Amino acid sequence: MATEKVNTPITRRSVLMGAAALVATAAAAAAPLPLEEWSFEVGQLVSHRDQPMLSEIVGRVRTTKGREIYSIRRLADVPIAYLMILGEVLVPVNDEDAIRSAEAAWARGA
């Protein structure tokens, strides 16, 4: 039993609709992206909101839902120094002693 091939006629309207969609997509792609605002900058010292964890931000990404995920380097001598952590649980470190401690850890190569 042979299957019948059904050809759909290409109309002028369908061609124009496709062209309009392509132009809209190209215009959206050419538009400059807005600058993203982040809670923390790369290189900034942070800690965990629930427990002390002096760390430095080494990278950051944003999920498709807009949540910030930070790659951090813990400055304490711990087995796992690098972590990926949600930005919601991080707080900035502004304590001078903590900053000096972080500088000393970098000098030691921790």
Distance between the termini: 74 Å
Which strand order do you get reading across the main beta sheet? 4-3-2-1-5
Q: Work out the helix count.
A: 2
Helix content: 25-40%
CATH class of one domain: Mainly Beta
* Strand element count: 5
Order of helices and strands: HEEEEEH
Q: How is the main sheet built?
A: 5 strands, antiparallel
Rg (C-alpha, Å)? 26 Å
Please state the second-level CATH architecture of one domain. Answer: Roll
Spans where pLDDT lies below 50 across 5 or more residues: none
Bin the strand percentage. 15-25%
Silhouette: elongated
Q: Structural class of the helix and strand makeup?
A: alpha+beta
Average pLDDT confidence is: 80
Instruction: Please name the CATH topology of one domain.
Output: SH3 type barrels
Secondary-structure blueprint of this entry?
Layout: H1 12-30, E1 45-48, E2 55-62, E3 68-74, E4 82-86, E5 90-92, H2 96-108
Antiparallel strand pairs: 1-2, 1-5, 2-3, 3-4
